[in-house]
Amino acid sequence: MFVAASVGSTKLLFSEAPGTNMTADSAQLAVMTMASDDLNLVHASKNGDVAAFEQLVKRYDRKLFRIAHHVTHNREDAEDVVQEAFLKAFQHLGEFRESAAFSTWLIRITLNQSLMKLRQQRRTIKEVSLEDGSQPGEDMLPIEVADWAPDPEQLYRTSELRDILIRELGELRPILRAVFVLRDIEGLSIAETAKALNLSYSAVKARLWRARLQLRERLNKYFRKETEWARMALCPEGNTAEEPERREALLHAQ
User: Fold this and answer.
1) Theoretical Cys-Cys bridge with 44: which of 52, 174, 184, 194, CB 3.0 to 4.6 Å?
2) Cα–Cα distance for residue pair 85/108, rounded to 1 Å
3) String of b and e for 53-74 (b: at least 16 CB within 10 Å)?
4) 119: CB partners within 8 A, 6+ apart
5) How many domains is the chain built from?
6) Nearest-angstrom CA–CA distance, 207 and 199
7) Domain region containing 69
């Protein structure tokens, strides 16, 4: 089931290098230790220690770039976003109240800068807002998504699916894309994602459900198309007079 397997599988799909296995307790301890160290560096930075802030930049540069790249779908734009996000964070360190993790605050700034970059390109604020025009009651959606066809655990082993998923991810509305990236690619919890996006817990779950459902539907269409191509390639002698029209329709659907 995609909901159950999505976080681990999607993180594996987008990971740049294999990691080590960690228990839930050890992972939580590592997160708490890093958060505490982040605060020490933040305090030093507030006191004028530029080297301390440089350590924070090195720690989160790659993570923020991944997030920005998935949202903007442009490498140069993502690089600009990360630079702007760190600059804005440094300039507004005094506004960080430590009510959330420093990494969550950085992610929030990065997402805002990413969406601003999209606004500049599309000239339509509504199209790239963190608010997606949901109606009252829409947050009350089922959180389970039916099984994929074919099994995503098998498909994740191929680099082709990664390219397809990246392409289809870019077709989602920015808010759905952001929720999916933070939760299923970066592995943030629902609560952390909610803080980063300034949304309620239930709103994040609802948007995550829609993002997963839309991606599943898009991928299913792709694989149905591939299955039809394979059938025609394997059984050319069985093609009827209407097959050329079907092939032409498939070509236009590419």
Assistant:
1) 52
2) 9
3) bebbeebbeeebbbbbbbbbbb
4) 125, 128
5) 1
6) 10
7) 2-253
Position 8, amino acid: G
Our CA angle for 75, 192, 94, nearest 5°, is 80
CATH number at residue 45: 1.10.1740.10
Tokens 């390639």 appear where? Answer: 233
Rounded distance between C-alpha atoms, residue 171 and residue 220, angstroms = 15
Q: Which long-range contacts (CB under 8 A, 24 or more apart) does 7-16 make?
A: 7/183, 7/184, 7/187, 9/152, 9/153, 9/156, 10/156, 10/165, 10/184, 10/185, 11/184, 11/185, 11/186, 11/187, 12/156, 13/156, 13/161, 13/162, 13/165, 14/66, 14/162, 14/185
Threshold 0.90, pTM exceeds: no
- For residue 93 the two structure tokens come to 């360190």
